[in-house]
Amino acid sequence: MVRLEPRLVPSRAVGYLAPIIAIALAFAAGMALFAALGRPPLEAMQLIFLEPLRSLRGISEILVKATPLILIAIGLGVGFRAGVWNIGAEGQFTVGALMGGSLALAVYPVTGWWLLPLMALLGIAGGMLWAAIPAFLRTRCNTNEILVSLLLSYVAVLLLSTLTHGPLRDPDGLNFPESRLFQTALPVIIPGTRAHVGFLVALAAVALAWLLLEHQLLGFKLKVLGQAPRAARFAGFAEPRLVWFSLLLSGGCAGLAGLLEAAGPVGQLVPALPAGYGFAAIVVAFLGRLEPLGILVAGLLLALISIGGEMAQIAMSLPSASIATFQGMFLFFMLAADVFVNYRPRWQPRRDSAPLARSAAAAAE
Amino acid sequence: MVAEGLGRTGLPRSPDRQRAPGAPGDGPASGTPPLLALAGISKRFPGVLANDAVTFTVAEREIHALLGENGAGKSTLVKLIYGLLRPDAGRMSLAGKPYAPASPAEARATGVAMIFQHFSLFEALTVAENIALGIAHQRADRRLRERIDEVSAAYGLKLDATRQVGTLSVGERQRVEIVRCLLQAPRLMIMDEPTSVLTPQEAEALFATLRRLVAEGCSILYISHKLEEVRALADRATILRAGRVVASCEPARASARQIAELMLGGTLPPSKLRRATSVGPVRLRLNGLCLGKEDQFGVGLAGIDLEVRAGEIVGLAGVAGNGQAELMDALSGERLAGTAKAIEIDGTAAGLLPPAERRLLGLCAVREERLAHASLPAMTLWENGLMTAHGRLALSRHGLIDKPRARGFARRIAREFEVRAGGSETAAQSLSGGNLQKFLVGRELLQNPAVLVVAQPTWGVDIGAAATIHARLLGLAKDGAAVLLISQDLDELFAIADRIAVIAQGRLSRPQPVDRITVASLGLSMGGLSQESVAAAEIRPEPAHG
User: Fold this and answer.
1) CB contact under 8 A, B334 and A354
2) DSSP secondary structure letter of residue B196
3) What is the second-level CATH architecture of the domain A40-317?
4) Which of B375, B396, B403 has the CB atom closest to A231's CB atom?
5) What is the CA B399 to chain-centroid distance, rounded?
6) Among all residues of chain B, which has the CA nearest to that of A10?
7) Domains and CATH numbers, chain B
8) CA A273/CA A99 separation, integer angstroms
9) Distance from CA of A231 to the nearest CA of B (A)
10) Closest residue in A to B87 (Cα–Cα)
11) Residue range A343-363, pLDDT digits in tens
12) Where do the structural domains in chain A lie, given as residue ranges?
């Protein structure tokens, strides 16, 4: 019989090994899945993991996809470390894109070097604004931020849809529900591809988050609040302020990501802009174990699987749900492997004390 | 043994009950098999052998004390007997038959009952409902209430079955637990430090009940580290050290010091470090400090006035749950008092300041609950030092943590307070209770506080560590700090406090110099205040003695 036994001290070795084991297990399970679907499993794996890396286009698409994932997950990860569960990055992403994009549309066709930075600032402000609602409600009314932020996501997506169907609709767009193309676009970092400066912004966010969590007293306070709220209260780390900081940071990151997506690869406001980045980033944050560098790797990995998955879908006509399932397996095995950081399995022979106990109980009747 | 003259009561018992045939209780009988026998019981937890081949017996009608320092394996052992854990090796027998309970329910079915240190009662339910919950297939109907009345009358355990548990005192809650056990007619009753939450008078009443129970034919296995109590009550004692039985004795015939040395495995450091006090100006002043209840069953603080001067240790005695935690909250700044003037630190009104600013003014606090309140269990020792000392000791600058300094501070605490730990990168949760406590006391003491408020500083700490902590507290006061010591351990208060006040129902008696107080009078005001507080809600308690 195998039993899980709590470890005295979390194992560091397992901490490093767990992601590798999880990936190996996800590989095995994924191959079984594709085999069950009647596709050659090795070939599917090769399509998903190697094909995108063979071309500059593939690599640049990975960067495009990874940018919002990493940027959002960094903000969420810092908040999650503080025990602030912002699940509404999707909404903050949307409102950020909406506010930043609206500026471009408002001044259309005027443009200049100042436009993109201002749009970015408005994007951040929009995300923060949307995250300020759960922050206010949690610190004032003790409302659960999970519910508030999640439900506000749907409000934001509907808001974007309403506006792109109405006031923001392109006057020359044949009534399609989408805005004009912006008069400005993000600088591209790999010529001839869609990879834009947003990726550099995401890298900077990774570095700043690392600095915050590893070297700043503020980061320490956030971690204390997340691990032991009573200890934080005793130490005098004011909870409301840290909750506000966490939500504004994650909201701002998500809002900026939304603006970068709108002003970069998409180039306009469309109802389908959010595309689930805000939710996928939660997965990225946890896959990266809420560590900035881990989030960077996890974001790239998830982007790789998405791009490779698309390629495999086309090449092998796989159902799209199979790729989503495969991504889910990654998260599942990752979380499962994490158990062994704090617990260790112990094999022990079945004991035969049960009949003994029964006889003792019977004797006492 | 106190057995003669106390006849049987109408307590319902299982019919096939084994007992010495018609014999009056005359101590542990030698001819009959022991009630409970443990042979070679071992239990291993990750990294520690909690019980190592433990062998001992509890005779019929015996009060058997289980002694040992914290971490000696007492609690693990009784959990094994009660079926909460299962031994890795060894055998147990109950009344001569093999005994291996798979669950507490099974243990109860065979007549083994246990009363925990921390009660498992629902505050919002009545006494009868709580008792019904603890017994399988039992409803809180009239028959149960009658049985509760019957049993509580028979054993002198005054209890109203219809009252809500949340309105009961700690002593009364313990009675609920005891009555719940008695209704199941136990042969063996296990008690884990039952008197740690009682006043001396309540403890006496408990002892009378236990003696009567023994006269009825029940045996009692009793965990304690209060040696005088064990000497007065127990017929035999088994002493554990590091998971092994190191001695067995008749406590009445040994001195408390001998027993303590057996527990410790060495000789005791000299105790009693009294000193001549020279007190200075007032450093901590409370002016009518009030604090509302945090919940329905909490205790509020009702106008507490107190002065603590430089160079003195003021002790606060009281039964747990009478406002000590709330007072700590108010002093540390975790909950804010109503007015700034309510708390003055060195003359500065601090009642509305948050904790970090109070620390900068010089008020440091040691909380009672070590894990996840006073410390960060999963974080390293240097992070635990940083937690409260970053401001006073400048362990961070411009928002950046000065890691070398923070590590140095943790190492200094470990060095000066003899904390046995792997180094500053060790996680706090991997330290033993006593070592962590030394670290946490050291963390506050080494910040040179002007005022130190400390709750239960030696709770669950071994005797050697307790002596270290006491000496450091005395040294701190001698250097001119004001120390407020909140403790349920009267011995500790008498050993190091200069003046002692009693907190009961959120009110504070006037502190009296320690040489003018007796344990008995202190106990009376600890219990008395709480009994009469309902009637005397408007009247401020008189100083109980003078």
Assistant:
1) no
2) G
3) Orthogonal Bundle (1.10)
4) B375
5) 40
6) B378
7) 36-264 (3.40.50.300), 282-370+449-532 (3.40.50.300)
8) 13
9) 4
10) A353
11) 877 776 554 444 444 444 444
12) 40-317
